[in-house]
Write a structure and sequence with these properties.
alpha/beta, OB fold (Dihydrolipoamide Acetyltransferase, E2P), Rossmann fold, 4 domains, about 35% helix, globular
Amino acid sequence: MVKITLNTSIAALKGIGYRYREALEKKGIEKVKDLLFYFPFRYDDFSQIKLIGELQAGGKVTVEAKIGRVEKKITFRRRMKLTEALVSDKTGSMKIIWFNQPFIAQSLRKGEIYRFSGKVDFNSGFLALHNPSFEKMAGPSVNTAGLLPVYHEDYLLTSRWLRRQIHPLLPLTKKIPETLPELLLKNYGLLPLPKAAREIHFPASPKIKDAARRRLAFEELFLIQLYLGIRKLKWKKHLAYSVIPDINLTKKFASCLPFKLTLAQRRSAWEILQDLGKSYPMNRLLEGDVGSGKTLVAAIAALNVAKRGLQAVILAPTEILAFQHFKTLKQELQDFLPLGSVGVFTRSQRRTGGKKLSKNEFLLKVKSNQVKIICATHAVLQEEVKFPELALVVIDEQHRFGVSQRSHLQRKLSRLGKNVPHLLSMSATPIPRTLALAIYSDLELSILNELPKGRRKIITRIVAPANRKLMYQFIRQEIKKGRQAFVICPLIEDKLNVNGEKALFGEASFAPGGELFQPRSSPTKQQEIRAVKKEQKVLSEKIFPDLKVALLHGRMKGKEKERIMLDFKDKKFHILVATSVVEVGVDIQNATVMLVEGAERFGLAQLHQFRGRVGRGEHQSYCFLALSEGGINANRRLKALQKCEDGFRLAEQDLKIRGPGEFFGERQSGLPDLTMANLNDSEIIKTARAAAALILAKSPDLSEYPVLKTRLELFKKGFHGE
């Protein structure tokens, strides 16, 4: 007989044949220790053991009773197979019924006592248990009488089956080595890992279950904080240009603006300028709601850098946004820097001042330090661009790049020259504080939580399919006033799926009940293009045949996208139909209507971003959230957007609904797959941060904690792209 250890292959376990082994391996379970670390995500509480005479409808209970008789039946109308057992204890008798499970009759023995765990319901006017789990009284409680673990299941691996496999292996948890230092276990009152791994599966009580979950969640969050803390320490070891801020210049720049800076802008600008003056590189996140003025704060930093004879790069995720930054900065800084000091570099655009340049001409100007501020996409880092005096890099919409992309960028920046540039990341997606604490702890944080005075509230309305005509009439009235409109399409494909239903593709979809489900298949760019082309055709030919309706999607060439956006800005089109490419970087002050089709398929944070594309001019603006036929029940979720203008509050709700992975887009958060940690739990995140700081203060390179160092190396592999 094979001796079972933590490293034994699951194939050696009793009851695991080829099909089960294959299903387990798909979940990454290859050894016994993997199975023990496949944790439940919730529990069914059948710990209440009741006598039959005490039962009430609706309760989840365990009954210990003797089998009287067992019968197999078929219902008259629906021809459903039933297995009925009559059981009794000292207080009375009751029926237990299993639907479509005739094999159960062979498992029950008349006269023997069993435990039955399930929900009490009515059957023909009498109380009964429907489809309960059951076990002999003489055996262990695996599927009855306690807090029963519920695991993520599939077509083959059920929680009942997993419990039967895991329960006999629990004694092996004593062999699991501890991964956290004794210092942390004592300081924070944590269970040892062997005990936590045992109790998380079959806890003796709710209290011990919570203690086990806390221990395991703490470790996940602690390792994230440790990883980011080490990265922060490494970053601070680099040498940066010390850019002493020119206060008089900054005040003069602010006084020349046609509006007053908000207090949040002034505070954030000062924090950034203070960082620029340090000899090690800044690593700061500037977080602000749509329209809060992040670009202006970045302009203040870039101006101070350029005035010292150094260079700054502003990185954008799209060519449209890079070109818009170029035009904005060129205009705002024209009275403070020589002509040609601001340039743009993308795959299709190379300009300084008002001149178009060849690639080589532009690179020579950068190399000779004539171009001080370069607005660019990531193409500027992929090309052989030589920066003689690069002192600042600004990443706009940084959440689109993710943790691992930022890490890669930092490594690339550290190799560009003798000094590492200061790094300022900006995000227009307000990030919930708990999430910022968890995954951005290597960054300092500046928050723009004020909007410029005078911005009108955008009127938001949810539009049911029956009210489409009224909505279209309203849009026509706005266009008659000289205004313009956006129409955003979700990623939808109307082909039939394997179940014969229409398959709806999208970044995130919501079932009629409002619950998130994953799309059955990933949308392709071609599906996205077909969707917007179809919408543009319907609007231009049937709804608004007398108006000019343009089309924009991410597959268009940079020059074509730029031409469409410029034409839209110049009012050559009335309506722009687009994919989520307009979520960032579009500033059309004359646009007053944002129509989002299939709004229930987008997250609240993303819808808030769309809404922020209008309301930038002097006119009253509107956002219409149009529901598809199957999405009308999503009203309750979308009403939060209708009532709330605060992007930070919406982000908190969005995180609760969708979780961090979907919040940032699939696998963009860079987080490893977390099994136990709840990123809404600010208390445990703060505890994990404090613990990481404590360990790094004692041993910055973890040389005093070799076991922890090895554990961290394994954990780091879970960071996407590492």
